[in-house]
Amino acid sequence: MIVARVLVVVLAILMVAGCGDGGDEPEAEAPATAETTPGSEPASEPEFEPVVYKDDFAASIKPIIEESCSGCHLPGGPGASHVSMATAGEVRDAAPLIAAQVSAAAMPPWPAGGDSPPFLGDRRLREDQIRAIVDWSRTGTINVPAKTPIAPGQPVAALAEVDIEITPAEGYAGSPGEVDHYRCQMYDPGVTERTWLQGFEFVPERTEVVHHAIAYRMDASARAQAEKAEAAAPGAGWPCFGSSGLDPTAETFALGWAPGQSPTLFPEGSGLPIAAGDFFVVQVHYHYDDDRPEDRSSLKLDLAEQPETGALDDIVVTEFVAPAEIPCGEGESGPLCDRDAALAAARKKYGPEGVQANETNIFCGTEPEDYALVDGVASSRCGLPARAEGDIVSVFGHEHELGKSFRMVLNEGSADEKVLLDIPRWDFDWQLNYVPVEKIQVKPSDRITIECSWDRGLRDPALEPAYVLWADGSDDEMCFATVVTRERSG
After folding, report:
1. Which residues of the chain register pLDDT less than 50?
2. Fewest beta carbons within 10 Å, which of 201, 220, 305, 309?
3. Per residue in 391-412, pLDDT tens?
4. Sign of the dihedral through C-alpha 375, 378, 384, 388
């Protein structure tokens, strides 16, 4: 089934919504002020007291750092290894970098653009806050002792309630040089009666080698097949590309993790259904550059209490795709610039399950010849039935490192057209899960269109010239989206 197979090749970032430091992010769209929040009417008066820097770091700058930065940049946070902000002195030393990042709207990370609807947790700073930081950075004075601690205003979250924590039976140790290596393992929650997953948190043990992870809820009927695959492969688990490698009719995309992600909680009264005997298969994407200790990452689950009457609303994940076809550019040549050769090379590396280039074209009714580079930029789009019915819980878009822009629209061209997600400047380091503030409903007869564009000039010049198409590798590409809906019971 094409839909199921296309779903599983997304690089495990369905629920990315955390914090961290993305390094050298490209310049992003100017942040919205309180008067220009996307999707809202301009306010007549600001609902806040504008921040003005008057040589008063403690009163004007420190609160911004604590509210919007320190949660990621304190010791132990995902951004601390890049820039530590544990003390006022460390913030002072990083003043030029902080000013440059916030001026470009690269930090705090929030790729969603102005055409998007309002989303919960919008991290963007106001213009007055940015101006105050820039003014402060010109002097870098702090007017407090350098050892003054910076408090965590928004610390990285942890799952508040953990009913089950699962680890695989055996840790996995890869070999040096195994880049883009995918490994599947069984995670068994031991569920004996129907329940609902209300929240989850994937906890990587070896963050230096775990690139991302995705988990599939497997029907109990696939247990024997999973045990056989595990027994047949040397070491822990079994190699897998594209999906779990098991019966596709028995697997359902359940959850995903990427660096900086916070735990995911579904709305109260809803959850992902789990039947007795169901288990999870977690696929981890490893990058082994050298010898590292074995990894035994864990999976924390928050299961719903059984309701006294009725059932919880089901959480449904629906996937949408458009082709990824990026031909070689002007001045590039080589055997892999031929699409058929590039397709064969990708299939040899990842197997048929890890290469969905032809399937996405079939699904969207297009041909590779329909796509061409225009000024070094390739693009594709595809409109598909919404298929789900209910309230939208979250939306997500995915591309790889050549991504230039991403857009998803509900009922494009109709009177009730609504942009679900607009990312005008794609950033691979920040693929977030966006939760709409307003209630947005979909029904099966609705149509969702996704559109992606890629900049061929972003491809690593050290790589052999090649036609880039839809496949699992980091140097390949995708155009993928998910819409998570809450299906009302009954």
Report:
1. 1-45
2. 309
3. 999 998 989 999 999 999 999 9
4. negative
